[in-house]
Amino acid sequence: MHRSSFLTPSRLAGRRALVAMATGTLVLGAAACGSSDGGSSGASGGGAEKVGVSLITKDSTNPFFVAMQKGAKADADKNNVTLTVASGKQEGDDAGQITAIEDAIARGDKGVLITPMSNGVNAAMKKARDAGLYVIALDTPPDPADTVDITFATDNRAAGKLDGQWAAGQLAGKPAVIALLDLFNDKIVSVDYNRDQGFLEGMGIDVKDPKKNGDEDKTGKYTGGKGGDYTIVCNEPGNGAEDGGRTAMEKCLSKNPDINLVYTINEPTAVGANAALKAQGKTALIVSVDGGCAGVKSVTDGVIGATAQQYPLKMATLGMEAIAKIARGGEKPKVSPGLDFYNTGVALVTDKKVDGVDSISSADAAKICWGN
């Protein structure tokens, strides 16, 4: 399945109903952004003076970040923005992001949009704010949240919970032998612990420290669905990549070949996990988070049982519009009620519905997905 990596205004207009269905009702606060559906209204583009904005992603290869970059580039002219795109070399490259932030300061940009690699870039983001730049985190809320001016992101805890609730419903009381394929084991990243811990909470498994992966009891009872016994075999880092997911899954299978449920931090990791399972003649329920077109196709094909769909284009375009508007004297955006970030929505994508768990089909998700 091939789809454009970003939505033109005409395509976006035709998909608003589906986006509204998928993301639910979003409370936007006093919007500094011109559109609530992720498209550009052009409201920010009236200023004669160009506004410099830097978009700094974790890497430039993951389809999620590629889509974010392409969407931002397509929308920059409408907001009269001079956009500079940069990234780390790969997941974990704090130094690359720090250099890009320092370059934005030196260039005199008005703002920075960043998917923070880890807490290791907090000091650099604070330096940018101290220099007068408006800093917006995308996708990955920093810890603490007030390290940046505001975050535009998926509710990653909610995304994980949807995966866990679906998995518990699918198991229907059978024992759960679980592999948790996280992002890192040597860095603290909010998206990492929120998705992992949210998944466990959705399964009905008690977590200890909600901001720490791997400290929960390794055996016990899950209470989601019909409830049953669980065993957590492993917490292995896949670094958000397909090869990392395969290696992590191989390590988990070496510990226990009877794994029947795999949580993955993202869809490239899920694809790698499936390859490892397939190589050993095994199958398992796989859940993930992303909702890119490739991941949605994996749901259609039965590789991934369910994935929580995010909206990276919305994060990037709303963030860019906000900086452009603020630079021209407009209002600052506000967080969603009850949260410390601006919620850009999430929808569970599956073709095997579970009673009591809201979801959309892979066919509907394919109409609003991103990437190739």
TrEMBL record:
Pfam families: Peripla_BP_4 (PF13407). Keywords: Signal. Residues 1-22 form the signal peptide. It is found in: Cell envelope. The keyword Signal applies. Residues 54-330 form the Periplasmic binding protein domain. It comes from the Bacteria. SUPFAM superfamilies: Periplasmic binding protein-like I (SSF53822). PROSITE patterns: PROKAR_LIPOPROTEIN. The keyword Signal applies. Belongs to the bacterial solute-binding protein 2 family. PANTHER family: D-ALLOSE-BINDING PERIPLASMIC PROTEIN-RELATED (PTHR46847), GALACTOFURANOSE-BINDING PROTEIN YTFQ (PTHR46847:SF3). This is Substrate-binding domain-containing protein.
